[in-house]
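Hello Y.,

Per our agreement to keep a running log of every chain we model this quarter, I'm adding this entry. I've kept the format consistent with earlier entries: sequence first, then predicted structure.
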Amino acid sequence: MNDAYRAAFFQLHRDLPREGPGEPADVTWATERAGTPRDARICDAACGPGADIAALLTASPQGHVTALDQVDAFAAQAQARHGNDPRATVSTGDMMEITGPFDLIWCAGAVYFPGVRTALETWRKALAPGGAVAFSQVCWFTDAPSGAARDGWAEYADMTDEAGVLAQIDAAGCDVLGTRRLSDAAWEAYYTPLDARIQTLSRGASGALKDVLDEARAEAALWREHRAEFGYLLCVVRPK
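Predicted structure for the entry above:
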């Protein structure tokens, strides 16, 4: 990502409510499956702009959320939103270097960077006894994805199906407490504000900004046209 593209990317994504699909109901479902206590120590790993912190604190009102993101701009947004809440600590940091102990590690849409198995094996040592990990991972929902869908996800060469995700969890030495697909509402919670920002910035856009806007517009269109073929699988797991 060169400097011009990076600047254009953050011009588009600055102050968006989310950096990926999700909704508070995902957090509620995951914490219920994990049996997360009301005073839990929770890590929001790769928290983005902090979209899930409020829901995590609702699920554990006497607990504490340690949220971090490797991107300074996203961590700053999360800090601006939640920095005045003593139940939340927000910082810039690498999700693969967390130490805990945590009763729950929540990671929305970011385990594809290290891979499911690597992330779970690394985070095992950061979990408190009985702790769990909840994460969402993009995968195929069909055995025969269309050419358009495959082209759209061509950069994700290791993308697998739901069975493949479960196999990676098992290989990491974890039991599955529950899985569910993210809903259309979760996707629209990301794309609807993004659509509005694209429309605003499109007037007179050129160069790197036009490229970034075109890519984001195509990404949203791909999901809306091929949503039955792929999506995010939300998984709650615990080391065996």
